[in-house]
């Protein structure tokens, strides 16, 4: 009953007039920016991060929730109408949804995506509300060594999950960890890697880094690609509403996608794309119309979209309870917490329960707002897709620059924005993942603090790091996250070589 009362208190906070206004602004901004081609939820949240800088923490985080969910909804619209996934989790939606749009069934595809997202978001948010207190109770028993092991697990799993190889992910992570060293050492008071520049004494601004890597880097990448063929916009023909047959074929995939997506999103090595692929495979196997898959099966849109949004709610479990981001978007949201001096984790539930539960309750409201807004405004989102590419990315550059100036009016900050924007372009150019850099900058100082605290308690004995069964378990999971994919690749390569040898014989 405790969770019910806390969630009810959170609903009271989220239902206040200004909170509703913040949620509405968030879902509108998130959907409007997320629906643009090539812009996923992570870039959307990073781009709009400076907008919330002057707001109070509760209003800012409620707006973040709206932007986050709005960006997820917007990505499905882009995938279905333009065959342009904003992120890897939308690939499956594009696969079947765009085929439906080309067959003149873009309306039902958008409708099943929107309603499936609502159903999954509603169930997953309730799951978050009931699971979070349990995780918090477990986390309260963590010591400094356990927290350091947890950080190592986060570093390894996130680096292994992003990018084409674990080595590239770890390289990006070490770039972020190096940036986390900039500023004043909290233990000794000495300046580190500031190069005599006063602006660097407070460290690298996470907001500036996120906007530069995601927004500026993306704009420079598009500009460097040169002229491209214009995207073909598919008109939405016929009714937006689903038929009785569409409903009958969609409701089970919505529920199955939710069950698949939520736990995978909550895992440290999870990822929304894993849930969408598993959901798609399950729907194809269970469907009574397997011949339609690859040609516009509505189950192939309903299930993965539900899994995608359930996974989005699942990522908030480790983020809010342990302070660990398991996705690029969660890393940007963690930056949003930190710009107000808030550190997600078990203590936040104890010190600011009204803020945490207000945020969780606002997810329910944002979900309902998005359902009401997305179905009638399909025509508007289609017109947004017609913005010429040069105007679109010029607007992104302008908005990013103005947002950075508004948050921190300094020539040094603008130079840092440009430098990291070029870094983001270079990383995209050579295939290095972006998210581990942001995660390294955010979690690096926290991991250092826990490591030094553990060593101080043990008077410098390094064995304290492996003295706890929990810490040893976390290290073993981290090692498995790196070694298992390598072993599977080697095994697959060996199978291929044996097959070639047998063919030659």
TrEMBL record:
<feature type="transmembrane region" description="Helical">
    <location>
        <begin position="467"/>
        <end position="488"/>
    </location>
</feature>
<feature type="transmembrane region" description="Helical">
    <location>
        <begin position="61"/>
        <end position="82"/>
    </location>
</feature>
<keyword id="KW-0472">Membrane</keyword>
<protein>
    <submittedName>
        <fullName>Tripartite tricarboxylate transporter TctA family protein</fullName>
    </submittedName>
</protein>
<feature type="transmembrane region" description="Helical">
    <location>
        <begin position="109"/>
        <end position="132"/>
    </location>
</feature>
<feature type="transmembrane region" description="Helical">
    <location>
        <begin position="20"/>
        <end position="49"/>
    </location>
</feature>
<feature type="transmembrane region" description="Helical">
    <location>
        <begin position="430"/>
        <end position="447"/>
    </location>
</feature>
<feature type="transmembrane region" description="Helical">
    <location>
        <begin position="138"/>
        <end position="158"/>
    </location>
</feature>
<feature type="transmembrane region" description="Helical">
    <location>
        <begin position="165"/>
        <end position="184"/>
    </location>
</feature>
<keyword id="KW-0812">Transmembrane</keyword>
<dbReference type="InterPro" id="IPR002823">
    <property type="entry name" value="DUF112_TM"/>
</dbReference>
<dbReference type="Pfam" id="PF01970">
    <property type="entry name" value="TctA"/>
</dbReference>
<feature type="domain" description="DUF112">
    <location>
        <begin position="20"/>
        <end position="439"/>
    </location>
</feature>
<feature type="transmembrane region" description="Helical">
    <location>
        <begin position="391"/>
        <end position="423"/>
    </location>
</feature>
<keyword id="KW-1133">Transmembrane helix</keyword>
<feature type="transmembrane region" description="Helical">
    <location>
        <begin position="355"/>
        <end position="379"/>
    </location>
</feature>
